[in-house]
Design goal:
The chain is an all-beta fold. Helices cover 2% and strands 55% of the residues. The chain has a 16-stranded antiparallel β-barrel with strand order 1-3-4-7-8-9-10-11-12-13-14-15-16-17-18-19. It is globular.
Length: 413
Amino acid sequence: MFTAAKRPHQVARGRQEAVVAVTESPLKRLQPASPLMRRLGQSLAALPAYQSTAVLADAPPTFTEVGLRYSRYSEDSLERDKLIFGSVDRYDIDITQLWIEAPVGASWSVALDVQNDYQSGASPWFVGARADGEPGVIMSGASIQDNRVEVGVTTRYFWADGNAGFAISHSDEDDYDATALSFDASWNSADNSRTWSSSFSTSQDNVQPTQGVIPVFINSDELDTQSAYFGVSQILSKTAVARIGLNYTYSEGYLSDPYKLMDTRPGTHERLSLSLGYRRFLIDFDASLQADYRYYADSWGTDSHALELGWAQNLSRGLLTPYLRYYTQRQADFFDLIANTSRAHHADDYRLSSYGAFTLGARWSLALSEQWTLELEAERYETSQDWGLYSGEEAPALVDFWRGTIALIWRFE
């Protein structure tokens, strides 16, 4: 049985491939015979990407946990030969997260999560043609500064063969606020060798772009999103476990990026992903091999694959996990290097382009004492159209970045 990792944090809304090409932000009515469903039969032979849903233990925590985590996300500067106008500096984001989780009685737990993100830097405004005819980037200038605060509360009930949780969260920043509700449950088979998991969430977002150096053309708009997940985890042997999960998400409302000059996206967005996971403990090495894969498809024409391999090595006082992740995606139907504004839907957002990406990183968990744990993580992310499995020209604004994290956790009874 797995125990869920504590409080995974958001590096930035829609900035990593985990968000699958940012096709579902910036910032419900299901249609039968949708473009996504018609395409799905052709794509499932290829399969889905990384899914973070984990199986929770069937007993409430026996201790109270308090944690503080800080992360730094820093994008590389844009290459000068790809710049037409503006700053080459890109986003830096500082993320601070505090959480507390405690048992309540014999069958309940409650958790409080508070996160603050501070973002600064410049982002691509639009792509135009340089003097030599090649595409170049017009940047917003180093004028973007934003602060986001998110507060979430989760309560969970445990019984002999499973558990169920309910969570509510609210996120607020200068130009965007969102309120989300979610429910999840997992339950075990009679012999405890199989666990089923399901969840449902809904979110209502409001976008109110701020007028600044970069003009925006809407005052406010809304976005509604619903998502459902179902998965199964199976113990294969004393040393191996596997899982499979299916996730469906539907969004309706304002899905364009108000801070891009030529960005008009459809008002609905369907997403479907299928995830696979495998863990095997290798007794001779006192370590476990970890493999995760996801296939993703959406109604905007994007397909993606992600594969992550990790090696979790037990040490005398902790756990060291190096990992390598590969990601590739097909561009959206309405993407062009230079947006084609003659079409109803158009965008030149690099996150909607065809590309491939590699992430190399490592996580280190160190037990300082029986009550205190130090966690460190660092990763490097790089992209190139040449690394992708799908054809298409390389978007000039593709991003590379560094991310580092440090966390201190205190557990006490």
